[in-house]
Design goal:
The chain folds into 2 domains: about 15-95; about 120-255, Protein Transport Mog1p, Chain A. It is an alpha+beta fold. It contains 7 helices and 9 strands. The chain has helices at about 15-20, 25-35, 40-60, 65-70, 80-95, 120-130, 245-255, and strands spanning about 145-150, 155, 165-175, 175-185, 190-195, 205-210, 215-220, 225-230, 235-240. The protein starts with 12 loop residues before the first helix and ends with a helix. It has a 7-stranded antiparallel beta sheet with strand order 3-4-5-9-8-7-6, sandwiched between helices.
Length: about 260
């Protein structure tokens, strides 16, 4: 976007992200603000960017020494770590929602009560969108950064410091697999975080991203954004509707 942006030209996500985090120069900021004030659509897109920026600022706060020890993360230089996260976060936040993922949308497979021979990520996503059937798990008294619920060695995280409150849970089966799901809410947004027992599920088609030595896959299915990865041998899936891919990636990597 240039300073002479005509009214008919929609600003890209990069400019909205810079406006949200305060890095846009004064001249362009004032011009873009004028366009945003005249457009409900731009106002909604800016609000989404501002919510993601606020969340990321909370998530990039220094991790407690105990948490760093648990996940093997060296203390390092605080500013360098924060700058690195801010850099990759902005790159993902600036991708247009509709074109960030070069994947054709596919209908989510409906799981019947019958045993499933080959569970899939698409089937798991169904549980992340379903209603909670159990109360929200409590925070682990031994570690305030995780919940007192786990599948194998993989514990669900507590995102309370970032403003995401737990909003219930559920337990399901995919064939002989246990699927535990915890739901989180933040400013009207809801995501489901599912962990599948047993060996990893077949990889889902999507956009691969490597962060902190872990391969994440961002994808979109039937209007649902999702990120999936393998941790301690189990498949993990975070999914939600109306949630930016960059936000899901940030949540998946917050404790790494």
């Amino acid at each position: 976007m240039n300073d002479d942006m005509p009214d008919s030209l929609s600003p890209d996500e990069a400019d909205l992200a810079r406006l949200a985090d305060g890095s846009l120069d004064a001249t362009r900021r004032d011009r873009l603000r004028a366009h945003v004030e005249a457009s409900p659509e731009l106002a909604a897109r800016l609000a989404e960017q501002e919510r993601a920026v606020a969340m990321m600022r909370a998530l990039t706060a220094p991790a407690p020494d105990g948490l760093r020890a648990r996940i093997g993360q060296p203390a390092g230089d605080r500013r360098r770590r924060a700058a690195r996260r801010a850099g990759w976060t902005r790159r993902w936040l600036t991708l247009p929602m509709a074109t960030a993922l070069a994947v054709a949308a596919a209908a989510i497979i409906v799981v019947s009560g019958a045993a499933t021979r080959s569970p899939t990520v698409a089937q798991t996503v169904r549980f992340t969108l379903a209603a909670a059937t159990l109360p929200a798990p409590a925070v682990d008294p031994a570690d305030p950064d995780r919940l007192a619920l786990a599948v194998g060695a993989v514990a669900f995280p507590s995102w309370e410091p970032a403003g995401w409150s737990t909003a219930g849970a559920r337990e399901d089966r995919l064939g002989d697999r246990r699927v535990a799901t915890v739901f989180y809410r933040w400013h009207g947004r809801r995501v489901g975080y599912a962990i599948v027992s047993g060996p990893p599920l077949a990889a889902v088609a999507g956009r691969p991203v490597r962060r902190y030595g872990v391969r994440f896959t961002l994808a979109r299915r039937a209007g649902t954004e999702l990120v999936t990865w393998v941790e301690s041998g189990h498949t993990c899936v975070i999914a939600g509707r109306g949630v930016a891919p960059g936000t899901l990636l940030a949540l998946a990597t917050v404790q790494r």
